[in-house]
Amino acid sequence: MSISIRDVATLAGVSVGTVSNVLNRPDAVSAASIQRVNHAIEELGYVRNDAARQLRAGVSTTVGFVALDGRNPFFADVVGGAENEATARGLALLHGNSDEDAARETLYIDLFEQQMVRGLLIAPFGDVTARLTRLRSRGIPSVLIDRFSGDARFSSVSVDSVAGGRLAAEHLLATGRRHLAFVGGSFDIRQVTDRLAGARSAVENSVHRASLEVVPTHALTVDEGVAAGRRLLARDRSDRPDAVFAANDLLALGLLQGLVVDGRMLVPDEIAVVGFDDIPFAAAAAVPLTSVRQPSALIGGTAMRILLDEADDPDRPTRQTVFAPELVARASTGVP
Prior knowledge:
By secondary structure, this protein is an alpha/beta fold. 45% of the residues lie in helices and 17% in strands. The protein has helices at residues 5-12, 16-24, 31-44, 50-57, 73-88, 102-114, 129-137, 161-174, 190-204, 222-233, 249-260, 280-284, 296-312; strands at residues 62-67, 92-97, 120-122, 142-145, 155-159, 179-184, 211-216, 243-246, 272-277, 290-293, 320-323, 326-328. The chain is elongated, with a radius of gyration of 25 Å.
């Protein structure tokens, strides 16, 4: 049975108002009353209902975050950056993983709406415009993570994925590679299509005669990268690309495993590999991975600051923050 503040007051022999003051304004209560109330709380096992208290006050101390892929260290770092900013302001961050599933994404958005969070950070998978618009009508702002808001309806914090894809392909071309492959999917994810578009632009505008094929995957995971690597190995040597640009580092690390572990292709001698994100495991791979770096923690912290600004001032104009990507060259493309 739920223990109420009235039960605490009865056991402590004080008024409900005194218990409330002990919980919220202890400086207004005598030391003796504080001691009696705390003893009653401990004996009864009373747990204060902060959610209800915040709803009554009209101000929540929690922020929601829906990540696209919680298993990807990139998003873990983004969450960490956002959480650092939140805790510095006395707020708690609650986060869920949509796992590239529109139904799960909707479930988390609706849950955070029911909790009346202070605001929502989201790396969207599906079309969430209608739901985020509804949240805003209820006083809950949203900021898009790792996705540029083209119509400026919502604030966003992202990296220029088109430029990142261009950087990756230009680097491969500069190292003498001419038969490039882009490994990635699903193409419902905007970041994947943007990175492919950037790579295509680099190949099409190259002074060299080069080609780019697409090797689709079902997800952006290590297992899918391993499978893609094995499909490339199954081809005749003359039909294999001499370079691969993977849509993220997890795919690239899987590719390295699929290509190298069996010992049938040498990286980078026979094939060069570039990833995207520059997660911590990239530099520690058996063949250190060249990657396009995103400032993950900075993305999270910046998004949180923008979100809280909008929570404090709902009339503040939306902002689109786009960071420039950086290519970090390592041994997987022949850089010592």
